[in-house]
Design goal:
Blueprint lengths: L1 H44 L9 H12 L9 E6 L17 E9 L20 E9 L5
Antiparallel strand pairs: 1-2, 2-3
């Protein structure tokens, strides 16, 4: 009986040691893709041509994130300006020098479930990885 228990515990530990780095790698890759998309949207939205990040840009962003295996419907965007003006309205783009801030978030999903094998509590199901970026608008009316 003791040998079986040792085998089960050893097998669980080996499984965790083999697969935990893979899940951590997926987490790091998703975080990097989300930050890259945040930076890209800010670069385009704050350019001299736009001065805003509208719903169409966000939908295109969701499509690009879907290409990396993320679920587009679970991505959340929050676009704000540092002076309180709306930063997602194409009818009133942010003037030059106004800070545009973008927060994106995506749920961790079940990436940490394998940590239960060694007794660690996984991340809450409603927890989300978040990215943030800020860029000054270059739009000239």
């Amino acid at each position: 009986m003791r040998n079986i228990l040792v085998f089960v515990l050893f097998a669980a530990m080996v499984c965790w040691m083999m697969f935990s780095p893979i899940y951590k790698h997926v987490l790091i890759a998703r975080q990097a893709v989300l930050q890259q998309e945040t930076d890209y949207l800010l670069e385009v939205g704050a350019s001299g041509s736009y001065g805003y990040i509208d719903d169409a840009m966000m939908e295109q962003s969701k499509g690009r994130l879907a290409a990396f295996g993320m679920r587009p419907e679970r991505v959340q965007f929050e676009v704000t300006a540092d002076n309180g003006l709306p930063a997602s309205d194409p009818a009133s783009p942010l003037p030059r020098g106004t800070g545009m801030m973008l927060r994106m978030s995506y749920p961790y999903e079940d990436l940490f479930q394998i940590d239960r094998l060694i007794g660690l509590a996984p991340v809450s199901p409603d927890s989300r990885m978040r990215t943030f970026g800020m860029k000054m608008s270059e739009f000239m009316p």
